[in-house]
Amino acid sequence: MEMTEISFIKGFIRMADDGWKRGWHERNGGNLSYRMKDEDVAAARPFFKKNETWTDIGTSVPGLGGEFFLVTGSGKYFRNVSLNPEDSIAVIELDEKGERYRILWGFEGGGRPTSELPSHLMNHEVKKRVTDGKYRVIYHAHTTNVIALTFVLPLSDEVFTRELWEMATECPVVFPSGIGVVPWMVPGGRDIAVATSKLMEKYDVAVWAHHGLFAAGEDFDLTFGLMHTVEKSAEILVKVLSITPHKLQTIKPDDFRSLAKDFNVTLPERFLYEK
Questions:
Q1: pTM score over 0.90
Q2: Which one from 2, 93, 108, 116 is the annotated catalytic residue?
C-alpha cells in the first residue's frame, strides 16, 4: 500500500478536490487540516521520514502536544492536491509542549504548512476540548456568496445566523448553534486565530469578513457538508436580495421553535427575535 491509499489520506484528498470543484479555492486560497487518530498514525508511520528539524508554530497549543496532523501547504494549490498530493500536503508532528512542529511526510518539492496553521491549531485545541475529542477537521474556504454578504449585512452573529437560517429549512438543523462573525483582520496571524477560537467555543462555523468561512467538524463529510450548507444558504440570500430588499414571507420565530422540537435540536432564543 502507498501512503496515498490510506483511508484518511484519500478522504482528505477528496475533500480538497470537492472544494476546488465548488470554486472556493482560487490560486492558493484556503486551507485544510485533520487531527489524526492513533490508527491513522500507525498506518502512516512506515512512510514517515526522519526529521530532527523543528519549527516554531507561532503560538502555543499544549492541548495538542505530541499529536499528528495532515495539512495543506502554504502557497500550494487545492487543484493540485489530487494530482500531486506528495507535494501539496504533509503530515506534521507537534512537540510535547505544542509549540513546534516537524514535517514527517509530504511537501516533497519543498514547502511548509499553511500560513494559517496557528488559526487551525488554536481552533483544533478548542474543538478537541469542547467536543471531548470528537472534532478532528478544520476547514477554511473562500466561499463566494458568504463573502459577498459581508459587504451588505451587519457583521453580527445574530444577523448572519437568522438570515441564513431563513433561507433553507435544513439550516437550523445543520448548524443549530448559529454562526459567529469575525470582522476583517489580517489573515495568518495570532489575532485572527484568537478571535476565531473564541467563537469556536460555541459555534462550529465562523464568517471571516471579506475573506470566507472557517468551519470545524467530526469528519470530512460533516465538515464539508456544513461549509456547503452555509454557502448554499448564502447563495439563496444573495439571489433574494438581488430581487427585492423586502421578503414577502419567511420562516417565523415560532416556526423555528416547532422545527427545533420536531428535530430535537436546541436553537438559542437570541436568534429568534421578531423582526
A1: yes
A2: 116
